[in-house]
Amino acid sequence: MKEESNPVIEVRDLVKRYKTSGEEALKGISLSVSRGEFLGLLGPNSAGKTTFSSLICGLIKPTSGIITVLGSEVNGDAGKIRNRMGLVPQEIALYQGLTVRENIMLFGHLYGLHGKSLRERADMMIEIFNLKEHLSKLLSHCSGGIRRRVNLISGIIHEPELLILDEPTLGVDTQLREMISGYLTGINGKGTTIIYTTHYMKEAELLCSRVSIIDHGRLIADGKPGELISRSGGCADLGQVFLKLTGRDLRD
């Protein structure tokens, strides 16, 4: 399934410096992601993970470096590839004054779905994520778990080739975590390339075919979870590897 010669994402010497900061958020990262990979993007708070994801999506522009996604160079404008990508942000990026169904239909429309194909795809997502009883509720009246499900659907309804998720299981219960994990494993098995940011090391170890660890704006480790553990010199799991590489000091 992997196509090393034709990666889904190719990043070379990526640097990002914000005007409000004296330090670079990313310091020359180079990374290639093959089609069908399930890549875990790990790092402490303020390590550069969200900046990296935002650059890949074209939401912000790099200070320097080259970003190629799905064969097109990204320069702060992902218009050419927008409908081929999906983004599930950490913050709930939905419309609180719309119902559950209205949110789902709106995001499907924004991603280019219309008519029968939109209705069928929406109904499928509603069934998979068990939302039938909540369709007419305003999002502002929904629980955190329902909002998380709709937030996920908003990024996957159009069946993207590349899916980028930022902490999609943050604050959810075990049952919903298992539902989300199972769905993502399923679509990855069918060929969807996934970039998955998480602070849950066990989740990354179980789900991801490969993990990249970023700290202080630099890529400090990259490889299959099992390989990183075996090369660590005594670490029992990915969580211990992460702490060994990034330290135990608290981050802001």
What descriptive keywords fit this protein?
four-stranded antiparallel sheet, 252 residues, 8 helices, 22% strand, six-stranded mixed sheet, alpha/beta, globular, Rossmann fold, single chain
Helix content: 25-40%
| Spatial order of the strands forming the largest sheet | 6-7-8-3-9-10
Shape: globular
Distance between the termini: 39 Å
The beta-strand count equals 10
Largest sheet: 6 strands, mixed
What is the CATH superfamily? Answer: P-loop containing nucleotide triphosphate hydrolases
Tell me the count of domains.
1
Overall mean pLDDT: 93
Return Rg in Å.
18 Å
Q: Helices and strands, in N-to-C order? A: EEEHEEEHHHEHEHEEHH
Question: Are there runs of 5+ residues with pLDDT below 50, and where?
Answer: none
Structural class: alpha/beta
CATH architecture: 3-Layer(aba) Sandwich
What's a concise summary of this model?
The chain is of the alpha/beta class and 252 residues long.
How would you describe this structure to a colleague?
Helices cover 33% and strands 22% of the residues. The protein is α/β, with parallel strands linked by helices and 252 residues long. The protein has a single domain (9-246), classed as Rossmann fold (3-Layer(aba) Sandwich), CATH 3.40.50.300. Helix 2 (100-110) packs parallel to helix 4 (144-156). The termini are far apart.
Question: Any chance you could write out the topology, listing elements then pairs?
Answer:
Elements: E1 9-16, E2 26-33, E3 38-42, H1 49-56, E4 64-69, E5 72-73, E6 85-88, H2 100-110, H3 115-128, H4 144-156, E7 162-166, H5 174-189, E8 193-197, H6 201-207, E9 210-215, E10 218-223, H7 225-230, H8 238-246
Parallel strand pairs: 3-8, 3-9, 6-7, 7-8
Antiparallel strand pairs: 1-2, 1-4, 4-5, 9-10
Helix pairs in contact: 2-3, 2-4
